[in-house]
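Team,

Forwarding the record for the chain on the shared tracking sheet. I've put the sequence and predicted structure together so nobody has to dig through attachments.
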Amino acid sequence: MFALAFLWAVLASAVVVLAVYRKRAARYEDDVIHVQDTQVAMIGKQNSLARTLGVVDRWGKILTIVVVAYGLVLLTSYLYIAWERSQQLNLR
């Protein structure tokens, strides 16, 4: 059971790392839309950052769902094992 809980902690840490990475990457986000030909460099930077944030957001959502579902399964199995052991003690 310890190995399963350790795996959950690693996955939860990955979600936290992704959240921190997204926060740091979005710090330099430019909210102004650049459409003029003279601002081609800014448009490229915005597109690149938008793609990066999109990938990070997608993986963040996927990992968050996996962490929550895996945590619920882990908790349920732990509670079931504890209940089963208490039932065995009551029969003795």
